[in-house]
Specification:
Chain A is an alpha/beta fold. The first copy, chain A, has helices at about 10-15, 40-45, 50-55, 55-70, 85-90, 110-115, 125-140, 150-160, 170-175, 180-200, 220-235, 260-265, 280-285, 305-320, 340-355, and strands at about 75, 95, 100-105, 145-150, 205-210, 240, 245, 250, 270, 290-295, 325-330. In chain A, helix 13 links the parallel strand 9 (about 270) and strand 10.
Chain lengths: ~350, ~350
């Protein structure tokens, strides 16, 4: 069945994820629609709050397109939040200014954990509506990425009830009551797979799993409590839509020591943070997956010459492309709200300009 | 010249650092003198403040000995703070309740950076007095570890003026004004070497460099801005005192991807955090250095059986000792203030009991 959407004019990003030849290295930035952009701040002010913005498909479409209008980016990503899923499970997501997300009903005892269920996807219809509307608004300019949090990363917020620096409560549950932790993770994995598949049905052309807190786990615990459940999600993902492959990306921040195991997860591409040496990672994985990353977002605080030099160093570290290699340029984490918008122009243009020499 | 201190009754820790045979795996815990102990809280209340405690050799001696009196630990560590050095440089260290350390005069411009100098070690005499007094009070029970922050980790606090989650200001300086950053790091390295050597003269029997924030750096930046300056410190360290070797330990939290390079730093032992697989690290480094670590402090929130099982797993991961291997059991980070004191008894006793089978 042919797609109801306009044909794609720039599929460089999708080809790179599938390790097909490209003319240059495609680039997008995590959190590219965000507070460093004055136009984002204006929309956010009209929406009244972060959730007012994220839950309204018109606003979500508007801010998703803003960086695409401003920069020569090769991919767009749905404007949303990973915590929409536990919110739909009834945990009561809310945001306090300057303190980040919180849950009104965190999972702190056996009763609340055992009551957890995969939510009806209708409660997340506003996300799928946004995906379809963004895809229509993009009109084929670049592909649209859908995303979700990893089961473990969601569990961190669900048990702690907020962000944490030491993950004391969620790790206490992991070591003291692994049975409860597995129940949460199993539920999260089923919900996440359903959520991403619904995004694919709504128009997402690639999907990404954000395992923001996998790197907080001990070796051994990471494999059991994060990676295993991400594999469960990937296993259940739709592989194609309207006859077109839907690539998947897995990103464990701080997961550089486990790249070989993450590469076996079934994902098409691995996100890398800036602690990883691109040349070493590529050699270790022998081009069996595409790599996405990994510039330190702090590089964008430097002068244009320095930004260009760091882009060049990064591209040279990945090295000359072969028939089966794939690299998507990105930061190693979300862009800082303190970034000057013009520094992103320098970065994106440098990636496009310098990378052609590595794709001949 | 013979030492003026009592002979050491338990040198297991020092032998393990030097990869000499031991009968069991020695154990100590980072931040073992601290808020999880009711006796520490009582002393701290009498001292009135953290700095009132750390700057008074009597109080520092009292709290350093508390965990040694309570547990069968194989090493003690000076009670102090890594920020004593920038405090002596004139940055004005102070503590606010619940927010951690702050500097009244952070390094934010070229003028303040270029005015930075290695402080007169007399300003840190209270630290050296504490070292001597603790060593006397220990009376040879276990060795005393001296310590300092790494040049980069000190720079993080000196530029940010406080702890940070994104190190925005210090990294902006690193990428935008590397000349200023190198001036800070060079000064810090010279100060740190003098500081550790004075601790050795005062009675420290091993020294440890805490690179708490090296893992926040990008690959490449880590080698240039953290590891290089730690090597400078180690190069200048006194190798022995009164004819006895003074082993050195380097710990970069989040440095698991760079172990081979850290092992070349000249340190006798590497501290490891819990993301590192002990078996892999040992195989990679081929017993060229001793390893210290690396249990997740959150394991101490579990039941005794579970703590014992995790200790056993960790010891088995390091594996059977050879003639040239060395392992010091520790956590992968400081012990949490929320730990039950009796859980530490379980851990220490399990290390001693289970490790003998690996040392035959």
């Amino acid at each position: 069945m042919p797609s109801k959407f306009a044909p794609l004019k720039n599929d460089t990003f999708l080809r790179a994820l599938l390790r097909q030849p490209t003319e240059y290295t495609p680039v997008w930035l995590m959190r590219q629609a965000g507070r460093y952009l004055p136009e984002y701040k204006a929309t956010r002010a009209r929406a009244g709050s972060f959730l007012g913005l994220a839950k309204n498909p018109d606003y979500a479409t508007e801010v998703t397109l803003q960086p695409i209008d401003r920069y020569a980016l090769d991919a767009s990503i749905l404007f949303s939040d990973i915590l929409t899923v536990p919110d739909a499970m009834g945990l009561g997501l809310y945001f306090t200014d300057g303190e980040g997300p919180k849950f009104a009903h965190p999972l702190r005892d056996e009763k609340s954990v055992m009551a957890l269920e995969v939510p009806d996807m209708e409660r997340l219809q506003y996300v799928f509506d946004a995906v379809t509307q963004i895809r229509q608004a993009l009109n084929g300019r670049v592909p649209l990425i859908g995303f979700a949090g990893s089961p473990w990363t969601l569990a961190c917020y669900m048990v702690e009830g907020a962000g944490s620096s030491d993950f004391r409560m969620v790790k206490a549950m992991l070591y003291d009551r692994p049975d409860l932790m597995h129940h949460i993770l199993k539920t999260n994995a089923a919900a996440t797979a359903a959520y991403l598949n619904a995004q694919i049905d709504a128009g997402a052309q690639a999907v990404m799993l954000f395992d923001s807190w996998g790197g907080a786990l001990a070796d051994g615990a990471y494999q059991t409590f994060s990676l295993y459940y991400m594999q469960e999600v990937i296993r259940q993902l739709k592989r194609e839509k309207d006859g077109v492959r839907i690539p998947s990306i897995v990103f464990t921040k701080g997961g550089g020591l486990w790249l070989d195991q993450i590469a076996d997860s079934g994902a098409d591409a691995l996100g890398l943070d800036w602690t990883v040496n691109l040349a070493s990672a590529r050699a270790q994985l022998a081009d069996s997956v595409a790599l996405q990353g990994n510039l330190d977002p702090a590089v964008l605080f430097a002068k244009p010459e320095q930004i260009r030099a760091e882009v060049q160093k990064s591209l040279a570290s990945f090295g000359q492309h072969s028939k089966a290699s794939g690299h998507v340029f990105n930061l190693g984490h979300g862009i800082s709200q303190f970034t000057a918008p013009e520094s992103v122009t320098v970065l994106v243009d440098a990636v496009h300009e310098y990378s052609r020499a590595f794709h001949v």
